[in-house]
Structure formats: structure tokens, C-alpha cells
Amino acid sequence: MKVLLSIKPEFVKKIFSEEKKYEYRKTIFKKKVDTVIIYSTMPEGKIVGEFSIETILHDNPESIWEKTNVFSGITHSFFKEYFESKENAYAIKIGDIERYNKPIDPKNFDFPFTAPQSFFYVDDDYRPIAQKVDFLEPTLF
Prior knowledge:
globular
């Protein structure tokens, strides 16, 4: 299964340069996910690539920082502020990375696209799974 993550352009750049090998989240997927589709937030506003998930670490924020800080791509102060007053932290270890030759502009989709606050599950056409409902004709009684 795939998820689309909203990631700030400054961090997208660090993912592609492999300076950032962990993507941090306050909440994590309930379903088994193997691929992350990268939506680079504004001002870019495009789907720019994807990466496989090597593993997902879960612990308290300080333990996660100790395990991942060398390849965090962020400062400790930014990390602490992001996880302020949180008991749980998740670190998605980035596996193989693919940068799309031509970023995908979601404005060109044939369905309404709203960037997720955090993430949403998507199909191969980047359509949110929640929007993929097969409607049945109502039964007349």
C-alpha cells in the first residue's frame, strides 16, 4: 500500500540528497505501507517522487532522536519543538528513493485534490483511497 505525505520543500531536498534518511511523524499508518509518495508542499505544490520504507521506528521522542539524529536532516531544537509534549514519536527510515523526472501537478488530476495535513492512503493514480468508492444504484422499493 502507498501513502502520500506532505513534506516541506526544504526537507524534500534533503531527502533527495540523502542528508535526511528519516521522516518524522507524530502519528503513523494503521495499514501496512511500503511506499511513500512525496507531495512537496507550497510553494512547489507538486508530487515530486517516492521512497520505499525500510522500517518504522517507534519510541519516545528522545530515544528516537538518539537513534536517528545523524541522518535526521533537522536540528535538535526543531525536533524537540515538533514533538513538544508528545510521548510517542515515529521515524520512517527512508529506503530506495525515486525522484520523478517531471513533477506531477495535482491541479491536473481529474478529481479534486487537497494536500493532506499529514498523510492519506493512495492508489497508483494518486487518488486517495477514501475517494475510491464504487457507488451502487439505489434500490427502488
